[in-house]
């Protein structure tokens, strides 16, 4: 495990978390805007306030541009065009969509289909605000259209088409991570050496706080305002997928947005998965992948990937760590820390 990525791993007192977040006034700039169905935050250290604000604006604009491109709820987006037309003929891809789809298919193949952006064929049948789920027959019809192997990309022509009718794509498990990475690239090119960009559960840390790492809290899946763990990180990304993000409970069953592509139903063996990786596009996709795979297969996958680590909360609320993290901590249960 790279020392530059994880200085050390431990559960810490909230006091330590608060102290690590303190930076001299007037230099650490923070801003947040609603985007990509969540809140996007851009925080950075800038010697020149005006320059720092300009770079924040540029980072937000990049995220907004990608949101307009990859939001399936926007009927004018490139992704909506793909969902409408790719069942009939090949659809041209922008460089960004080509890259994201290629990366998504990489994780689909790596996980045997546990990660599959065509889950949207079933996912669009759920209404979490309205607390409605599809009946068994409708869900089975939709599930038959979920198959990453029918997302057919032509690298030479840079096009995509669907191998069967009824397919639809949703990049919600990878697009936010990709957008976070692009925002960090903009800040880095602009000369920023210390920053954090987050979009919901996806964050990437550029540099550190000067003399110490950034403290990142992993939300307690069942206790709002508390952390399951706090991790010191520098120059890395972390993404958390949990069954508490978009959900409703009916007849004792928790329906949430992380669907198992094999069934079209909510994966139900874990409460949350946090993945630490060099890039947010990978931590984002892998947090969903591991959540669907479950504890033992998910840890086996993470342990097979160099430079990737995981913190998993199982259905009973117990913490589990990937091998590299386990070597650096003796913690086996929650630390109850107020946010």
Using only CA atoms, what is the Rg? 20 Å
Mean pLDDT: 88
- Total DSSP E strands: 16
Low-confidence stretches: 1-26, 330-339
The count of helical stretches stands at 10
What kind of sheet is the major sheet?
8 strands, antiparallel
Biggest sheet: strands side by side, in what order? Answer: 1-2-6-7-10-13-14-15
Helix content class = 25-40%
First-residue to last-residue Cα separation: 28 Å
> Looking at the structure, what is the overall shape?
globular
How much of the residues is beta strand, in percent? 15-25%
- Topology pattern, helix = H, strand = E: HEEHHEHHHEEHEEEEEEEEHHEEHE
The class by helix and strand makeup works out as alpha+beta
Brief write-up:
The chain is an alpha+beta fold and 339 residues long. 45% of the residues are buried. It is built from 10 helices and 16 strands.
Structure description:
This protein is α+β, with helices and mostly antiparallel strands and 339 residues long. The protein is 32% helix and 25% strand. The protein has helices at residues 14-20, 49-70, 78-85, 95-110, 120-123, 136-143, 175-189, 280-293, 295-303, 323-326, and strands spanning 28-35, 38-45, 91-92, 151-154, 159-162, 195-199, 202-206, 214-219, 226-233, 236-242, 247-250, 253-256, 270-277, 309-314, 319-321, 337-338. Strands 1-2-6-7-10-13-14-15 form an eight-stranded antiparallel β-sheet. It has a three-stranded antiparallel β-sheet with strand order 3-5-4, covered by helices on one side. A three-stranded antiparallel β-sheet has the order 8-9-16, with helices on one face. Helix 2 (49-70) runs antiparallel to helix 7.
């Amino acid at each position: 495990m790279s020392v530059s990525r994880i200085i050390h791993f431990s559960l810490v007192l909230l006091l330590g978390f608060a102290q690590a977040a303190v930076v001299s006034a007037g230099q650490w700039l923070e801003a947040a805007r609603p985007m990509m169905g969540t809140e996007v935050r851009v925080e950075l250290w800038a010697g020149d306030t005006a320059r720092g604000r300009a770079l924040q604006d540029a980072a937000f604009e990049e995220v907004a541009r990608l949101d307009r491109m990859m939001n399936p709820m926007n009927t004018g987006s490139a992704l909506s065009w793909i969902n409408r037309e790719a069942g009939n003929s090949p659809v041209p891809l922008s460089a960004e969509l080509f890259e994201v789809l290629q990366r998504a298919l990489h994780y689909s193949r790596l996980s045997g289909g546990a990660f599959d952006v065509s889950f949207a064929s079933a996912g669009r049948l759920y209404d979490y605000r309205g607390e409605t789920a599809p009946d068994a027959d409708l869900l089975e019809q939709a599930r038959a259209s979920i198959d990453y192997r029918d997302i057919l990309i032509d690298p030479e022509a840079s096009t995509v088409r669907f191998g069967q009718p009824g397919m639809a794509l949703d990049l919600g498990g990878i697009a936010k991570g990709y957008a976070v990475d692009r925002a960090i690239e903009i800040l880095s090119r602009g000369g920023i050496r210390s920053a954090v960009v987050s979009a919901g559960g996806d964050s990437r840390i550029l540099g550190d706080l000067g003399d110490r790492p950034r403290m990142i809290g992993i939300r307690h899946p069942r206790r709002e305002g508390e952390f399951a763990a706090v991790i010191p990180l520098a120059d890395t990304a972390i993404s958390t997928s949990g069954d508490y993000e978009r959900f409703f409970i009916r007849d004792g069953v928790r329906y949430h947005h992380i669907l198992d592509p094999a069934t079209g139903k909510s994966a139900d063996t874990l409460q949350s998965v946090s993945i630490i990786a060099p890039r947010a596009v990978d931590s984002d996709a892998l947090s969903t992948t591991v959540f669907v795979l479950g504890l033992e297969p998910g840890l086996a996958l993470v342990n097979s990937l160099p430079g990737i680590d995981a913190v998993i909360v199982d259905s009973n609320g117990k913490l589990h760590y990937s091998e590299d993290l386990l070597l650096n901590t003796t913690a086996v249960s929650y630390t109850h820390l107020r946010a």
